């Protein structure tokens, strides 16, 4: 029997009003059905939002340090179940256990960080310009937060969004990606076990075009956080802009690792292998471009090709697996289209470029790690996000040219520079047009206590993680207390009196 899962709405695990379900399948083995999940509709979202409004009224009155205590218990439960959750996450979305363990650990770190921030929702007290008057600001919750998350970090990204929202006193309506609903359900179970009041969290499964769109457009959801493609983010932005909602967008990337002639090539090699092929290239921070100065280009490419040919594809739960499957068949087809684009543009297919179908790999959605050399700046292969295991190598003559190529795309999430030159390292931090820059480290590897996000068409200026996200999920309120016993007129010219 295939297990049938439910939504969590109004404090209960309930069937969808549509009566319809979809199957969640292991991408490493299409015959392994994890479960059937609700294909919910707008009526389910309506009921979830109404419940979340009730939960908000209760939760907002709970002192923030006590809200933080609930998140601390969530962290404890995640830590106790880390191996179990990593295993189910790998079965659901494919990346190797070493990576899903890290995904769970990021949720644990975010929980503990949020618990502390429950005691640090700082405001300001400042001197008034008038006598016998007190002036201060403090943080207030906003209301119901709509949380729409992607498949590639099934635990980390929902926790980045929901834990700060909850500590700030908001309620959440959560729609996980339809490719990873099981991890989302387990996370909600853990939050409830930790003592989160039931109506503070709502879980509505389904597809983005229906459930996600209904959450985004709901008039009683004043704050929305979305991670996904730039194209979908633009539609979310149009809706939220028209309805005057607070919105955080985390979207695409076309991240570059720059390797200069003086770089430690062994270190740079390890960085690009991890950055380009970790999570099968399915990260918004994945290394999609390798920009190499001419003096070391040929040597680094030879080293890289040799290592890539030795990467082992397979089920992420099996020992020795380096690269797991793509998330579904549509992702494989997209990568195949970009291989054809690269060939048509005259780039040289150096390694990979096809589905991996030998033996057990035929059961899943595997694609060979792929490298194109001779890629030209400005070409589609160099400009467009692929979200798969495809690396484009661009040869440059100088650091100035490398910086220009890095900046010459519409995205601006992450960048990386390998060099021993301290002057160029500091120039990169200033001149690379990205929200994140690493020096002598790959383009992936953000830490939970620092802000995460990008510029240009990667985002809309807000940040996940760190201290800045707590400002996104709360409003500033300013209060004045006049104890002078007389009318005092601020913003009136009294300096001549």
What does this structure look like?
It is a single chain. This protein has 2 domains: 7-251 and 459-478, 3-Layer(aba) Sandwich (Aldehyde Dehydrogenase, Chain A, domain 1), CATH 3.40.605.10; 255-439, Aldehyde Dehydrogenase, Chain A, domain 2. α8 (230-242) links the parallel β10 (223-227) and β11 (246-250). The chain has helices spanning 42-59, 64-80, 82-93, 97-117, 156-167, 181-193, 208-217, 230-242, 265-277, 294-309, 329-344, 380-383, 399-407, 422-431, 468-472, and strands at 7-9, 12-14, 21-25, 33-38, 124-127, 133-141, 144-148, 171-175, 201-203, 223-227, 246-250, 255-259, 287-293, 348-351, 370-373, 390-396, 411-412, 414-418, 436-439, 455-456, 474-482. It has 15 helices and 21 strands. Helix content is 38%, strand content 21%. It has 497 residues and is α/β, with parallel strands linked by helices. The strands form 6 sheets. Strands 14-15-16-13-12-18-19 form a 7-stranded mixed sheet, with helices on both faces. A 5-stranded parallel sheet has the order 9-8-7-10-11, with helices on both faces. The chain has a 3-stranded antiparallel sheet with strand order 5-6-21. α2 runs antiparallel to α4 and α2 (64-80) crosses α6.
């Amino acid at each position: 029997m295939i297990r049938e899962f439910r939504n969590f709405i109004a404090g209960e695990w309930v069937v969808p009003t549509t009566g319809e379900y979809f199957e969640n399948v292991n991408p490493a083995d299409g015959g392994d059905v994890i479960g059937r999940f609700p294909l919910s509709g707008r009526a389910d979202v309506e009921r979830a939002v109404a419940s979340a409004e009730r939960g908000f009224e209760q939760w907002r009155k709970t002192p923030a340090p006590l809200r933080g205590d609930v998140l601390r218990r969530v962290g404890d439960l995640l830590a106790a179940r880390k191996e179990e959750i990593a295993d189910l996450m790998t079965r659901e979305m494919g990346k190797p256990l070493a990576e899903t363990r890290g995904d769970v650990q990021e949720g644990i770190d975010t929980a503990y960080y949020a618990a502390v921030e429950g005691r640090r929702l700082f405001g300001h007290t400042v001197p008034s310009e008038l006598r016998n008057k007190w002036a201060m600001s403090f943080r207030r919750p906003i209301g119901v937060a709509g949380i729409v998350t992607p498949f590639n970090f099934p635990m980390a990204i929902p926790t980045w969004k929901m834990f700060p929202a909850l500590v700030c006193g908001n309620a959440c309506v959560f729609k996980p990606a339809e490719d990873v609903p099981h991890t989302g359900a387990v996370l909600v179970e853990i939050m409830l076990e930790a003592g989160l009041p039931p109506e503070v969290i709502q879980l509505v499964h389904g597809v983005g075009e229906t459930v996600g769109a209904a959450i985004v457009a709901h008039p009683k959801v004043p704050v929305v956080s979305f991670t996904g493609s730039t194209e979908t983010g633009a539609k979310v932005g149009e809706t939220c802009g028209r309805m005057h909602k607070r919105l955080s967008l985390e979207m695409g990337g076309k991240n570059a690792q720059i390797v200069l002639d003086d770089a430690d090539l062994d270190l740079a090699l390890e960085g690009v292998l991890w950055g380009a092929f970790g999570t099968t290239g399915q990260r918004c921070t994945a290394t999609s471009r390798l920009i190499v100065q001419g003096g070391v280009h040929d040597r680094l490419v030879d080293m890289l090709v040799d290592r890539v040919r030795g990467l082992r594809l397979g089920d992420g739960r099996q020992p020795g697996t380096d690269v797991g499957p793509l998330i579904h068949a549509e992702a494989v087809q997209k990568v195949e289209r970009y291989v054809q684009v690269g060939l048509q543009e005259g780039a040289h297919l150096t390694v990979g470029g096809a589905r991996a179908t030998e033996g057990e790999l035929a059961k899943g959605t595997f694609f060979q790690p792929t490298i194109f050399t001779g890629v030209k700046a400005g070409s589609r292969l160099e400009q467009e996000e692929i979200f798969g295991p495809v690396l484009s190598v661009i040869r440059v003559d100088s650091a100035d040219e490398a910086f220009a190529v890095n900046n010459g795309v519409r995205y601006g999430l992450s960048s990386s520079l390998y060099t021993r030159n301290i002057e160029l390292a500091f120039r990169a931090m200033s001149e690379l047009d990205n929200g994140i820059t690493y020096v002598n480290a790959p383009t992936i590897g953000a830490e939970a206590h620092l802000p995460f996000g990008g510029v240009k068409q990667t985002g809309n200026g807000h940040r996940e993680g760190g201290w800045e996200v707590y400002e996104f999920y709360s409003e500033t309120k300013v209060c004045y207390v006049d104890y002078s016993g007389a009318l005092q007129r601020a913003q009136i010219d009294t300096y001549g009196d």
